[in-house]
Amino acid sequence: MSQEEIEKLLQDGLSLYGYGKIEDAVTIWRKVLEQDPANQQAIDYIESAGYSLESPMAVAQLIEVPKTNSQDTEFININYIRELLKSRRYELAYEFLERLSEKNYPSNKQLIAYLAIVKAQLIKLYYGELYNFKKIPKLNIKEQDIIKYNLDKTDGYIVSMIDGYSTIEEIFQTISTIDRFEAMKRFYRLTKLGVVGF
Amino acid sequence: MGKTIGIDLGTTNTCVAAMLNGKPFVIPSSTGNRLIPSYFAVTNDEKTLVGVRAKRQSITNPKNTIFAAKRLIGRRYDTREVQVTKEKVPYGIVQGPHEDARVMCGGKSMSIPEICAYILLEAKNVAQGFLEDEIEGACITVPAYFNENQRQATIDAAEIAGLKVLRIINEPTASALAYAQKRSKKRELIAVYDFGGGTFDISILEFGEGVYEVLSTAGNTYLGGEDIDNRIINYILEDFKKTHGADLMQDVMAMQRLKEAAERAKIELSSQTEATISLPFLTETSQGSVHYNTVIMRSKLEELMSDLVENTIQICKDTLGSAGLKKTEIDEVILVGGQTRAPLVIKKVNEFFEKQPNRSINPDEVVAEGAAIHAYNIVSPLPSNILIDITALSLGIQTKGGMFAEIIPRNTSVPVTKTRKFTTTYDNQDAVRIAVYQGNAEMADDNELLGEFVLSDIRRAKKGEPNIEVSFDMNSEGILKVTAKDADRGTEQTVTLEAASGLNADEITAMKKKMTALELELKEQ
User: Fold this and answer.
1) How many interface pairs between A and B have CB atoms less than 8 angstroms apart?
2) B185 is catalytic
3) What is the average pLDDT across B254-279?
């Protein structure tokens, strides 16, 4: 299989993934691995897709961040980011970019610019999905069931602030020691998990 | 005509009430809360928070969350009370330009009246929103032991918040007023046992025939329900350490949740014999997320708080003693403050006074209700009840050796005029300095300096010969007029002492403008 064909398969997988056809996407990426078992991009995609079914947060932790500064690797990363953006997988792109910009290329202007774009896209997404933060959230599950979810102490703290009369925006103000973007991200995830509703 | 309201500006909570259909009514906020936590905060993104939201981030944002501002209002920075508070609170307390105590919040120094104004503004907005009418004026309550500076600073806070103060009244007096609504008019001696969130006060009042007089008052400004919350928190911290081997003290998010859970459990234990605390994902250890669950029995809480309740009983004992009263002379004991819901408190008060305390009025709301009644009485054309207040602190002047010479003793009913004679301390002395102090300490410097002036042109004579009469005249508004007179020559000097709140007129105007702008901004949102 030529490099061009591999690229096409990766892209086809991303397109399917973008339409929510996760299993079909994974099947295509596995075809890439059959031809090129070391193809990191395909591995990343499969792992990402696999974990995203359970927990999008865990996905980022499993992305292999390149450790060299070579132009080639950087080029691949940029391509990967472009793919993620094309398929609107902004959360994954953000986690990936954040890790890159913090650890490997802290001064890479292109990465910083991408990070800003992705962050803006995510904020737009959060505003849309969370009703411009104007709605009053409520706990969507029985209190005793919360421990069944994969949360951490910051999530526990945020959930404890849901009082039945404060809007999300008001809760953000009350938890202002948590970075606002981080708070949005966590709230969004809590709603996606079904822990929090409206 | 607008509406009048009563505001109980408390150390930990503030409550606002108004008269509706001839009865006092506590006004709930739009969220249904009847109490506004007396908390003010500036968030990381420079937003101001007041009330419940400010309280709910007090531990995660400790340096920029101001609470218990009432302990600082109208006090000079160098006073003992301010220095004690400075040791106990996580926020910064600094000296203001007029030697007043100020707090650091959001990187800025803020005056205490300004902080209290934010809380009063919240109370005003709650009332205005509910009553759908402008607020014409308010009666605001203060502890009976507040000196003139503290009262003036409270008035300044109201002015900044755009509230016209109809009268500042003592908290126990307000309680008695609310209580009188539900009583016959016979003459009675009442003990008001006020165990609030941050302070404890006991006051003995005499009332009947529409006349109310505070005979005696005392308390502890550092003894309240929050001390009980802290006992519960410490108990949980120890239990957590034993069970999970981890110290939660440094985990601010966990501590914030613990504080709220402790307060909730305490409230539940007033009506139930056990309370469950369940805090999922409270913290993280090397083993992963930790969920904390425990059950606290009422008996455990009573064990944790018993010495605090005993302290309040001791203060009751001392107060009755200083008023020359026997507990059997007390006709009724009124319970005020949320902490008096605790069965142990009711039991101990019952045992001490040898009578069942009156629990017919909501202890959290009685002070605001009384203030609302009084505010209504002031503006209504009906004959109003007469309030007789007392001076909770002695008033006097400094004499030789820095001693404090009392002219109006504490617990004296106002209005009052008292005169005492003094003389010179050296030969041919032709002037004397009259330094007026308020307080109960023997040395003048340990009391609050209200003002000073010089009486000159005294008849020159041997020391001890001239007769200098110093008169203190205090009216029912608490305004003190001091006159020093050379009785031999008839020359006299009079000053009216205006209390110093720590702010000047320009500062008050500027703060008021800022507050009005903020109000408009909030309305537009």
Assistant:
1) 69
2) no
3) 95
